[in-house]
Amino acid sequence: MTLQDDVIQVENLTKVYQMGEIEVHALRGVSFSVHQGEVLAIMGPSGSGKSTLMNMIGCLDVPTSGNYFLEGELVSELDEDRLALVRNQKIGFVFQKFNLLPRATALANVELPLRYAGITNDRSELAKKALEAVGLGDRLTHQPNELSGGQQQRVAIARALVNNPAIILADEPTGNLDSTSGSEIKKLLLDLNHSDGTTLVIVTHDPEVAQIAQRVIHLRDGQVEREEVLA
Amino acid sequence: MRPRWRKVFADLWGNKTRFVLVVLSLTVGLFTVGMIAAGYISILEDMQNGYDSINPADLRYITDPFDTELLERVRRVDGVTDADGEVRLNWQFMDGEGEWKNMTIRVLPEDGQTIDRVELQEGAYPENREIMLDIHIDTQLGVGDTVLVQLPSGTQKQLPITGIVQDQTIGEIATSYFVAPSFGYVTYESLPWLEEPLSYDNLLVTVDPNLSADEIDQVSQNVIRVIEQSGRSISSVMNLTPTAHPNAGYITAMSGLLALLGTFSVFLSGFLVFNSMTSLFAQQVQFIGIMKGIGAQRKTIIQMYTVFILIFSLIAMAISIPTAGRAWTGLAAFFSSRLNYASSEFHYVPLAVGLQIVIGLILPQLAGIMPILRASKISVQEAISQTGIEVESTGKDKKEKQTKKIKGISRPELIAIRNTFRRKGRLILTLITLSLGGAMFIATFNVRASLQTYVDRVAKYLLADVSINFDRNYPIQEIEMLTSTFLGIESVEPRAMAYCQLIDENGDAAENVEMLGAPPESTLIEPILIRGRWLMPGDEKAIVLNEAFLAEYPDLDVGDTITLYVNRREVDWTIVGFFQFIGNDSFIVYVPLDYLNAVTGNINQASNFQIVATPEVIENEQVDELVAQVDTFFRDKGFHVNSTTSSADTAGNATLGLDTLTTFLLIMAGLIALVGSIGLTGTMSMNVMERTREIGVMRAIGATDAQVMRQVIIEGTLIGLMSWVIATIVAFPLSYFMSYIINVSIFGMFGDFTVTATGFLIWFGIVGVLSMIASIMPARNAAKLTIREVLAYE
Ligand SMILES: Nc1ncnc2c1ncn2[C@@H]1O[C@H](COP(=O)(O)OP(=O)(O)OP(=O)(O)O)[C@@H](O)[C@H]1O
Ligand SMILES: [Mg+2]
Predict the structure, then answer these.
(1) Is A26 near ligand 1, meaning CB less than 6 Å away?
(2) What are the structural domains, with CATH classification, of chain A?
(3) Scanning A94, B44, B377, B527, which has its CA 20 to 30 A from the CA of B674?
């Protein structure tokens, strides 16, 4: 029973980390949904389970229990190859630590998802366009260690959007950046949402970043503490 | 444990695979070095000590029959330390499978053996009418059995076997160890019962070990005078000094190879350890930064890691030191039984253990200190900010260009290639390790092929199927007539043999030469000519010389005349050609049979006949039966048959010694391949493990497992392939060098250098399979983890 325009729907998601004898309940039954084209911010104190939740939504990890529907499909029923396809086509993930391939140029990094998608034509054209879209048209042949933190994060965003995904997930995308670079990234993500209608889920500690969202979910101790709908 | 120690320990232990790989490479490296060093240090000494312990004869004289009275007189000669009498008899005996075989009997002296002693392995010394057998020829007869022997007269006797002995002198005189018949040992008092006179005909003498070669010659002259004064004539004098084991050549060859292999293995294990240690400690960079950040001093940090490396060293040494020496002892036991020497019991060879300790302690510290020093030098900020994906920075511009140059390769392959080249230092070390191991492996097969060439060469001079030797000459016509009606014999060809001396310009006897007389039209010899031609019908004083003459007298050429002392006459011969024999340093010549017979006065006679079997016999593989039939046939008719052998046996036996060397080489190649494989597996695995996080990123942006796998395999295979290419190049000079060592040790000179594809191909297969396994395993591990886990990987 999913709504037509709910891109993401999670129901009673839990995650238990087994640490030897000890069980860490990182998520204790989280439910919410995200509409097509919405900008959702997830906030909460450190250790409240934000990254854990994002990993589930990004199909980087599997929940202990609960259901996760992505565009109406039950993710837990997908096999590894289908999941790889989902990660490649439907989701663009932006990490706090960028996670670029260190020995590949910006262009090669952005081309990577296209390659995994099996696209053979115009790969570098598409990648170039994505890099131009994030304002790095003049840094195509730079490697990550020759770029600033903000620039690296923009490469990561270009990589996330190059396959035109339905959702972009960003886990503290500005966490490793100074405030100037941070607000640039924030603006960039918002522009994306405005121009392409890409759904955006963003984890942040920064209230300013949260302000670009239409809705904020506050997590505490692995549970939704409250939901706040902004303008 | 203090917390920071605990953290380091947890880190090192936490990466169990890496931890195990480091310890494993260190252990295997130390094991190899220890084993080879123990072998190199002890093999020659063992052989010499074992041989010295039987008190080998320095001089041997074959004379008219004599008794203990002569022995007493010889013992009184100045410089002589001892003298023994011996009798050698040639018998037939029935082996465990009911076949008649040749047996040489050594008659033990009356008052017990003091010279050329045999060592009892099992049972007891024989009494009157009993026998002991030599251990090395497999007769399937043992202590408690009875052996049936046939004396030259045809009489058969049953002798109970009382003991089994090792006789290290087999091969010292006459035929080489590998073609020698079985040996038996009976007592002096049994002689009359065995239809032999109660006397000796071999005189064995040992001399004062401090005498020089000239002084020994002088002693020998004095002994000869004593014998001649007693009214006996001497038919042969053999100076065996300096006494060396008959198979010393093989052992010297092995020793030389061990030196080479040892040097290699030190480097090989050095690289191996270096590689794995660098990889293990590269990880610690960030932690070192953090420790410095919270105030740890460089000294403390270095101290701490030194202790941890020491733990690796101790574990590896604890395993490799006791096993290496024992492994060598086991190998030596195997080789000593094949080469008939007495290897020593297990004992620690101090120098080998010392080498293991020094390498085991120092090498890992050297390998570990580099990344630690580097880490402790970089700023705290740098160390901490390293995310774990990349530890070293790369000079990318050059590499970018390099990889761009490779056309026609798609993007993922390109990235794989770039990844392969990314850690230049590590890659070079890996390649050196693999290439050395591979080259060694490949070279072994080439050396084997060179030895095979030798065997093939022997066969060219042994084209007949059966050879029968008589104790004296018989009319050629008579033998031809008798064999013409013999079922299974196609043709027969006489051979004559004479020992003669080469006379130099001064008229002195310079060399002993083995002279073979063959019919010039013989089709049973396919000579390998170096120069000139072979014998032709109508030749008289024509002579062909083997390569030994060319080596010793390079000025000799076709058309020259040489003088040989044959049958107490100086005879001039005209050189018509030079032939390549087995690369031996003994002097061998072929002359026309009739002319040799004219010189020796044995017109139309011969003592050896080469028999060609009919095609049916060969097709039905009945050559061995033919050998037995021919042998019995002539014995029954009263001919004095010395031995009848099949050429296949002779050639096969001649190669037995080489087989031992080949086996040795194969074992060594296997060991090298093992070290190389562990190196390969370890390095590859570490390369992939270091990229676990990268694999996580790839998966996060949608790479399927197949896509990840493909890239990792391309990378691994590429390294393997490169190492193979280098190994094939290095293998050539190495093969040449190894062949040289072996040939010079055994044949005294370097014959042919042969290259075979076998080693190259096998190593290609090994490298291919291993690179794949080594890359796939860690990649699969990475694929099993969730991406979250992989991304958190450090
Ligand atoms: N791999 C793991 N094993 C065990 N426990 C974990 C693991 N990862 C996270 N946790 C625990 O799960 C809880 C939620 O962690 P999570 O990383 O989701 O928090 P977060 O909200 O992202 O915090 P931050 O704002 O600091 O990034 C924490 O208590 C954490 O200790
Ligand atoms: Mg987090």
Answers:
(1) yes
(2) 36-60+79-229 (3.40.50.300)
(3) B44
